[in-house]
Amino acid sequence: MKRKKKTLISIVGPTGIGKTKLAIAIAAYFKTEIISADSRQFYKEMYIGTAVPSHQELKAVTHHFVQHKSIFDSYSVGDFEREAMSKLITLFKEYDIVVLVGGSGLYIDALLKGLDRFPKIDPKIRRDLNEMLRTKGIEALQEQLKVLDNDYYAKVDIQNPHRLIRALEICMGTGKPYSSFLNKAQVKRPFQMITLGITAHRKIIYDRIEQRVDAMMQQGLLEEAKALFSYSALNALQTVGYKELFRHLNGEWDLEIAVSEIKKNTRRFAKRQLTWFKRDPSIIWIDIETNMKEIVTQISKWLDNPKDS
Prior knowledge:
Blueprint: E1 7-12, H1 19-29, E2 34-36, H2 55-60, E3 63-64, H3 77-92, E4 97-101, H4 105-113, H5 123-136, H6 138-148, H7 150-153, H8 161-174, E5 192-199, H9 202-219, H10 221-228, H11 243-249, H12 255-278, E6 284-287, H13 292-304
Parallel strand pairs: 1-4, 1-5, 2-3, 2-4, 5-6
Helix pairs in contact: 3-4, 5-6, 5-8, 6-8, 9-12, 11-12
C-alpha cells in the first residue's frame, strides 16, 4: 500500500541492547533500507570494537553509513547531517519508510531535529584545550567542563575528548554554558518520525555489556587494537574498547585490568546514552523482551492512523 507521508522509524537505546537486530527485523518487514547513526561504526578500520553488524546482517538489509570513512578522515556531525539527509531524500523516492538506528544521540538528533548553531570562537581556545589534553590528560578537561557546564557534563560521553573540547571552547569563548545553546530551534523535516527506544532493567543491560566485551576479546579485539596502536592519537580512536587496550599495549595496565576498564567505561557510556534519550518525551519505549510481531503490528497501526498514535 502506497502511503501518503514518508516516515523515518528510528531505533535508539544503550549500547548492547539489541538495536541492530530490531532495526533489521523492522526494515525487512517493511522491505526498506537502514541508515546507521552510530558514529563509532563509521570507520572501516574499526570492526570488532565497534560491534559493526555482521556480514550476514549487512547482507540481509542494505545499510548506509557503516564503515564508509577512514580513521584518517575528518568527519563531523555536520557532515553526517548533510550526507544522511541527502541519502534520505534519495531513499524516500523509492520507499515510504526508512529505518534509522544508532546509539549516538548527537547524530540522531542532528538528523531528526537539525544542528544547533554556535557563535564563532577564537581558534586559540581550541589550541590551548588540545595542549591541556596533551599535557594534563582528559581528566583535566572533564573537571573543567564539570565546573563550567555541569548539565552537559552529566549527559556527554566524558571519555570523548573531541566532545569535551567542543563544549569547553564554547563555554570559554562565550562565557555561557554549552548546554544553553542546545535545542534552540528545531528544523521542520519533510517526513514524519516514529522513534522507538529499547530498554531493560539495568542489570540486564550491564550483563549484556559484560557478555559483549568478552565476545569481542574472543573475536580478536586485542589484535585489532595492536594493528591500530601506532595511530592511537587519532580522534576516531579515542573511544571505549580501544583506548583501554592502548594503555595495556603501552605497558600501563595488564590485560585483565584493561578488559575490566572496558566493561566499566561501557557501562558508564550506556548510562549516559539512556540519560540523553530519556530527555526526549517523543520516544516510545519498548522492553527488550517485547515480541517482534507485536512491535511491527503496532508500528503499522501508527502509520495507518497517525492521529491515534
